[in-house]
TrEMBL record:
DNA-binding interval(s): 28-47
Keywords recorded for this protein, A-Z: DNA-binding
All residue ranges annotated as the HTH tetR-type domain in the record: 5-65
Segments forming a coiled coil: none
Protein name, per record: Regulatory protein TetR
Record-level Gene Ontology MF annotations: DNA binding
The organism's taxonomic lineage, starting at the top: Bacteria, Bacillati, Bacillota, Clostridia, Lachnospirales
Domain of life according to the entry: Bacteria
Family annotation (InterPro entries): Homeodomain-like_sf, HTH_TetR
Length: 199
């Protein structure tokens, strides 16, 4: 996860956080200003309109997502290590921006009307396909069955964070990188041991 280097990035970061938390991209400017600890005029200075800010939030999201995507291509690590680091980044991102699925849902519905939404959709598809191929090789599963394992894997890394209140899960057990990596290794071990031969 990259560090925020400017007031503008801090505003975008907090806007993305609030959009995920509230489940909508329609977040009031005043709420964003309060969360970013800036005044409304600072938001007006960096972004001429709420629509322009929303476009930049999407660009910020794409930049962060592309960073996560690059982990899957890093040949300094084994495929299993790449998958573990990738899943950790997804979990960290979900902890930082709870309920972020709102951005993806909007991108899917607007992909034919808006270039940034189309980019978000395409980057997400690329990541899922690449992750699926790596997972299939790691757990030695046939192409026909890997969809189930991908669903189990992605659900296992996202559900505990996004639904901790509903499932009485103590989110603190996944708060550090070391804890998350141990958890992800366990998921992979379970998938290896229960790999579906017939599906």
């Amino acid at each position: 996860m990259r560090e925020l280097k400017s007031v503008e990035e801090k505003i975008l970061d907090r806007a993305l956080y609030l959009m995920g938390k509230s489940g909508t991209t329609n977040v009031p400017i005043r709420a964003i200003a309060k969360e970013a600890e800036v005044n409304v005029s600072a938001i007006n200075y960096y972004f001429r309109s709420k629509n322009e800010m929303l476009q930049q939030v999407k660009e910020f999201y794409i930049t962060n997502t592309t960073g996560v995507h690059s982990i899957l291509d890093d040949e300094a690590y084994t495929e299993e290590e790449r998958l573990i680091l990738f899943a950790n980044e997804i979990m960290e991102y979900t902890l930082r921006y709870p309920g972020l699925a709102v951005i993806l849902k909007e991108a899917v519905s607007l992909k034919d009307q808006d270039e940034l939404s189309k980019s978000i959709f395409e980057v997400t598809q690329i990541i899922h396909h690449k992750m699926e191929r790596i997972l299939a090789r790691i757990i030695n599963e046939e192409k026909e069955c890997i969809l189930y394992s991908r669903l189990i894997f992605m659900s296992s890394i996202i559900y505990p964070i996004e639904n901790s209140e509903l499932s009485s899960i103590d989110i603190n057990i996944l708060s550090t990188k070391e804890q998350r990596i141990n958890y992800i290794k366990h998921i992979i071990k379970v998938l290896k041991n229960t790999s579906l031969k017939d599906c």
